[in-house]
Specification:
The structure is a homodimer. The first copy, chain A, is of the alpha+beta class. The first copy, chain A, contains 7 helices and 11 strands. At the A-B interface, α1, α2, α3, α4 and α5 of A face α1, α2, α3, α4 and α5 of B.
Chain lengths: 295, 295
């Protein structure tokens, strides 16, 4: 009997020794997950060959990351975000058929009970920032409009803050709204141009970013959850392609298909129609939903 | 330019997108370590294909593990232990030349200032447990005795507790001692037979062990740190091969070469010589130190 079959540790057989202990796992899925985690973890350790000091630094980093979490802050999600793991899990769970709009991460600032508003409403409640008009269509993958699609939109303001981060400063539900399409599948609403903003960078994850020479910023974007009966729900963003951080989103949320041109408009007639005082930003972006089960 | 070269996320290029951000890392070693960690983490996620719920369970497990740590408890070291990572890091940092004794993990119960005792002393200060006599030699890899080797030994008692776990119940420095070899390289001391014991299993790591159908026990052992001028310091255990958990140490500390026969002796003459009341356990185990730089 080989030494590892007796349960004794050897460097060469380290994975088999450890995973061999899980034969009585209560759950087949957990057993499978722990087999992969153990194998990849041992592969990483064998490739890195950490010193005892480096190993202890890793232990203390993981400990601090857990201890930075509280009711309002989830530093492990942040770590997952900055290592691209959140986007990878999102991608794996949201593989779309050809032509359908791509997903990206939900983020921590969605609010469940935003108000349903009439099409064309202004979601900016405090008149702060540069006016913006956003319009487009909700389509299926054959290009047909989807009626009764529900569009839940939220965004940061012109200083890069969501309402929930500035309670008492921004009005409640500022820059949030829910819209429902008619038979033409069209949507439009008014807002202000959002600004890039940093993820929380005063904790262990921010320190790691600093040591890696990385900044903590997310490029300006609008969040969407789009639902329609018979279609896969789409959770995504659209991004300003001219944002200074568009090629270096700290959480890797940008996909090429999520770039939406933000056009600066000098059009007094349209400005008057929208109730804007002068020049404004104009975004025209269609979203394509996949039918349930469509691949 | 490929989409990932613009910093945009794709599932296929996820590793390149993330590690490509580290070009300005302040430290080459950190950059290398994070490249391996990111690559292996993404490989694991791609193989596991976690649901969003499973991903959140992992986030919450890591969070709880950090939050279980305090001044007295390091749950992340425990996690490293039960996944075999601590033993792997120990193995990588303590590769020994042929014939030298193998290392194993230090564990959390070493105390820096144990008393130096005369050879043959009894380290059991409360007369609890079954008497044991331990002897052997400290040798170099050519079989020559090493003089002035310093042997730092510590162990759990007959109920599986270290003195530091039972302050006020066990005497201070119970079952600890430091011995120094003479020209013959021989050592001997008296003690009691240690018992197996559980690692702390009331936290997230204990729950994980339970879900994996694993017990939390470490088989009975004695700890050693052996130092001698000109030789690599050896941190190791010896184990009782007849222990019920010898093939399933919760932290994978057992190596075949660390098994030391624990012989039950009925020898009234020797018992009288050692001051033992009757039958006793006898262990004869040599340790072989590698010269510094010897490979």
């Amino acid at each position: 009997m080989a030494t590892h079959e007796k349960g004794f540790f050897t460097e060469d057989d380290s994975v088999a020794v450890v995973t061999g202990r899980n034969i009585n796992a209560r759950d087949e899925r957990l057993k499978q997950v722990m087999e992969v985690i153990t194998r990849k973890l041992h592969e990483a350790v064998k490739e890195i060959e950490p010193t005892q000091d480096e190993w202890m630094q890793a232990i203390l980093f993981l400990t601090r990351t857990g201890q930075t979490c509280n009711e309002w802050r989830q530093e492990y999600i942040l770590l997952s975000d900055v290592l691209g793991v959140s986007m990878l899990v999102d991608a794996i769970n949201n593989r779309k058929p050809s032509g359908a709009s791509e997903s990206t991460v939900l983020g921590p600032f969605h609010v469940a009970d935003a108000p349903e508003l009439p099409m064309g409403a202004n979601i900016c409640l405090d008149a702060k920032g540069e006016d913006m008009f956003i319009e487009g269509r909700i389509l299926d993958t054959s290009g047909k409009p989807i009626a009764d699609a529900v569009i839940d939109v939220w965004q940061a303001n012109d200083e890069g803050f969501y309402d929930v981060q500035q309670k008492g400063i921004q009005p409640d539900f500022n820059l949030r709204g829910i819209f429902r399409t008619g038979p033409d599948g069209r949507y439009c609403f008014r807002a202000v141009k959002p600004k890039y903003y940093p993820i929380p960078d005063d904790g262990p994850v921010g320190q790691l970013l600093g040591q890696l020479g990385r900044h903590p910023y997310r490029p300006a974007h609008l969040h969407y959850i789009i639902k329609a009966d018979g279609y896969e729900t789409l959770t995504t963003h659209i991004f300003d392609p001219d944002d200074p951080y568009i090629n270096s989103d700290a959480v890797f949320g940008v996909k090429e298909s999520l770039l939406a041109k933000f056009n600066r408009m000098h059009d007094p007639a349209r400005a008057q129609e929208y109730g804007f005082a002068g020049d404004f930003w104009d975004v025209d972006h269609d979203f394509v939903l996949a039918r349930k089960g469509e691949t």
